[in-house]
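4.2 Preliminary Data

To establish feasibility before requesting continued support, the project team ran the inverse folding procedure on a target of 139 residues. The structure was first converted into the token representation described in Section 3, and no sequence information of any kind was made available to the design step. The complete token record follows.
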């Protein structure tokens, strides 16, 4: 992974074989990012995304392997209890034009991933909401 910082914007290239989730964390910790938005595109060949079932209050994961193009990767970097936290969603399409997606758990780059991280001056923490079963923004 390589990246350059331009004021409050980071342009990153995540390379073949690297996990996007891990590399976002690496950048955020190195740059001490407390709040940011993320968007990316690229190619992946192994990814896991989840769907939160509200009645059961838990995530169910789906794993995909093969050639996929990232149609959309969007998310946030913020904190929970003052520590790094990220929340990303991914949609990826196969060679048949079928798109699969959900809450991003893992995505291994097969060619490249181009990412823009827009750092926001500030900090928003999260808290666990018992009723909903998710870590919500504390606003």
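Position-by-position output of the design step:
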């Amino acid at each position: 992974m390589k990246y350059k910082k331009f004021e409050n914007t980071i342009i990153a290239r995540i390379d073949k074989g690297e996990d996007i989730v891990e590399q976002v964390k690496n950048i955020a910790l190195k740059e001490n990012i407390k709040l940011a938005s993320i968007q990316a595109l690229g190619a992946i060949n192994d990814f896991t995304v989840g769907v939160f079932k509200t009645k059961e209050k838990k995530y169910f994961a789906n794993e995909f392997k093969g050639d996929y193009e990232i149609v959309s990767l969007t998310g946030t970097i913020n904190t929970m209890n003052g520590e790094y936290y990220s929340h990303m969603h991914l949609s990826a399409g196969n060679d048949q034009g079928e798109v699969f997606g959900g809450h991003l758990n893992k995505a291994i780059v097969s060619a490249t991933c181009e990412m823009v991280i827009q750092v926001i001056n500030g900090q928003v923490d999260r808290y666990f909401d018992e009723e909903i079963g998710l870590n919500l923004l504390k606003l």
